[in-house]
Amino acid sequence: MNKLYPCLWFNNNAAEAIAFYREITGEVNILSENPVVTLFELYGSTLMALNGGDVFKPSPAVSYFIYCGGDNDRIELLYSRLQEGGQVRIPLGTYDWSARYAWIEDKYGVNWQLDIDPINNVQKVVPALLFCDEQTALVSEAKAFYTTVFPEHRKLMDYPFPPGAGMPEGALLFTQFQLGNLIFNAMSGGDEQHGFKFTEGNSFVVECDTQDDIDHYWNAFAAGGQESRCGWIKDRFGVWWQIIPSELGQLMNNPQTGHQVSEALMKMNKLDTELLKKAAGQTDE
Fold it and tell me: Considering only the top CATH level, what class is 209-279?
C-alpha cells in the first residue's frame, strides 16, 4: 500500500510549530527531519511540516479534525491553547453534529476542528476538505473521484443535505472515506459564502513504491488539474498533491549525493525514480 499523509506549509517556523504542538498535546514524535522537511506524528498520525517560506500559507479549505475520544479535559485544553495568537472560527459548544465541538485557526494558520466524539479508528487526526462557494454541491462528486483514483479505499459514512435545502439530488453535506491508509472527512460549505480556496499551503503526499504508481496518480490528477514542479500537482477540484517515490527522503538526505538529487528534482514536474537514483549514483544491475 502506498503511504499517504498531509503536508503543512510553514513560513520557515515549522520547528517552532511542532514544538508548540508537542507542548499542548504531549503526543508528538519526530520521525525524520532536515532544514526543509520534518516528518512527525501527532496522536499517532503522520504529518509533514514544510519550511516553504512566505510564498503560500495554509487555507481553511483544509482543516484537521482531532477526535478527543470523549475526553472533555483534552478538548478544553486544546481549545484554550490552540487559539493563542490565532482565531476561533466556531466556539466550543454543543451543536447538532456533536456534543462538544470547536473550530480554531492557530497562530501558524493551520485550522483544527475539535470533536469530543470518539472516532471508530486508531486514526485520531483526520484531514477535512471543505467544498464551498461554487464547489458547495461537489462533495459527492469529489468522493467518487478520489475513491476511483485510489485502488484501496473504503466509503465510511454519508450525510446528505436534508430535503428542501435547495441542493441537487444526492448532494452531500458531509462524508467520510478512507484512501489507502488515511481517513478523510469532506464537507459542504452550504449556502454561505466563505471565500476559502484550496492552496499549496495544504497538500497530501502520496509515497509510491513503483514508477507505475507515480504515473497512475499523476495522470489521474492531471486530468482537469494542473501540473507543477517537483512532483506537485493540483487536481480538478483544486486540491494539491505531492506524488513522490517512497525512497525520495533517503535519496535527498544522503550527505554525499543529496544535492545532485535535489538538482535533478528541481528540473522535473512528474518525478522519475530512475533519473533520481541515477543522480544519486545508483544504477540497477
Answer: alpha beta
Angle, vertex CA 279, rays to CA 276 and CA 283, nearest 5: 85
Please list the residues that pair with 221 across neighbouring strands.
none
Q: What is the pTM of this model?
A: 0.95
- Which value, to the nearest 10 degrees, does the dihedral of the CA atoms of residues 209, 205, 12, 35 take? -10
CATH number for region 3-161+168-188: 3.10.180.10
Q: Are 201 and 58 in contact (CB under 8 A)?
A: yes
Same fold, 3-161+168-188 and 209-279: yes
pLDDT band at residue 47 under the 50/70/90 scheme: very high
For 231: left if phi > 0, alpha if psi spans -120 to 50, otherwise beta; the answer is: left
CA distances from 264 to 35, 48, 227 (A): 19, 22, 17
- Other C-beta atoms closer than 10 Å to the C-beta of 268 total 13
| pLDDT value for 109 | 98
What is the tens place of the pLDDT at every residue in 7-19? Answer: 999 999 999 999 9
Distances (CA, A) of 215 to 107, 151, 184, 269: 37, 14, 23, 12
User: Which one has a higher pLDDT value, 43 or 119?
Assistant: 43
| 142-176 confidence digits (pLDDT tens) | 999 999 999 999 999 999 999 888 888 889 999 99
CB-CB contact of 105 with 60 (8 Å): yes
CB 108 within 8 A of CB 58: yes
Is residue 142 a contact partner of residue 131, using CB atoms and an 8 Å limit? yes
Average pLDDT, the chain: 94
Q: So where are the chain's domains?
A: 3-161+168-188, 209-279
* CA–CA distance, 44 with 265 (Å, rounded to integer): 30
**Within a 10 A sphere around the Cβ of 47, how many other Cβ atoms?**
22
> What pLDDT shows up at residue 280?
85
